[in-house]
Amino acid sequence: MSNLKKLYQIAFGLAVFTIIYNIAEGLLSTYLGFEDESLALFGFGSDSFIEVISGLGIAHMISRIENNPNSKRDDFEGTALRITGTAFYILVFGLVITSTYNIWTGHKPLTTFWGVVISLISILIMWVLVVWKRRVGNQLNSAPILADANCTMVCVYMSFIVLISSGIYELFRIPYIDSIGTLGLSYFAFKEGKECFEKANSDKNCCCD
Fold first, then answer.
1. CB–CB of 12/60 below 8 Å?
2. pLDDT class for 208, splitting at 50, 70, 90?
3. How many other CB atoms sit within 10 Å of the CB of residue 18?
4. 85, 86, 100, 108: most buried by Cβ count inside 10 Å?
5. What is the pLDDT of residues 48-67, one digit of tens each?
6. Closest C-alpha among 156, 174, 53, 154 to residue 103
7. Distance between CA 207 and CA 195 in Å, rounded?
8. For residues 207 and 58, what is the distance between their CA atoms, to the nearest angstrom?
9. Residues 85, 200 contacting (CB under 8 angstroms)
10. C-alpha span between 142 and 154 (Å, rounded)
11. Cα 63 from Cα 41, distance rounded (Å)
């Protein structure tokens, strides 16, 4: 097996692992977020499900550029980007409305303990993925794979938002902090949705530059 083929297999394996991890994280986060009435954790889990759609497009992209490095984005990737972008916008709308309502009514989570635990795990795993994806992307001199690493880095930022908001609430029970954290997630989700549509309508790399 050539070194080039091995690197592409590693990149594909990282994409598949990201998909599987996001499914697990999404299921756990939405369930615990609903049970604990933590909107930030629930929104974080919902974002993970959207990242699964994006991940399918990225896995397909890696397979495409392995077979034809000079090929352009195909219909599958374009459709995945548009579906992902639409899902992000719907998520942002739901999170902003719900967090505003929670602030208005003074709603507070029962606990944000699991938000702290899940976000810490996510930061660790996503950071390892970022480093590994960047290493492979640099070895392949692949801008699309490096762009995917940048997208994974956005997941690290979102995990930090959940960690900070959940940690502050769990320690000090400050009202509205969970909703404020949710608005922080909404900002990044909106940016990701906007970038998805920009990439779908251009020849730029799939995901975040």
1. no
2. low
3. 24
4. 85
5. 999 999 999 999 999 999 99
6. 174
7. 7
8. 8
9. yes
10. 19
11. 33
Structure tokens at 68: 């034809």
Distance of CA 158 to the CA centre of its chain: 8
Give the tokens for residue 131: 């480093």
State yes or no: pLDDT of 207 exceeds 60: no
Helix axes 143-172, 113-140, angle to 10 degrees: 160
Give me the amino acid identity at 152. T
The identity of residue 90, as a single letter, is: I
Alpha helices in the chain (DSSP H): 3-35, 39-67, 75-105, 113-140, 143-172, 177-200
CB count within 10 Å of CB 75 equals: 7
Per-residue 3-state assignment (H helix, E strand, C coil) for 6-31:
HHHHHHHHHHHHHHHHHHHHHHHHHH
pLDDT over 60 (residue 82): yes
Distance separating alpha carbons of residues 204 and 206, to the nearest angstrom: 7
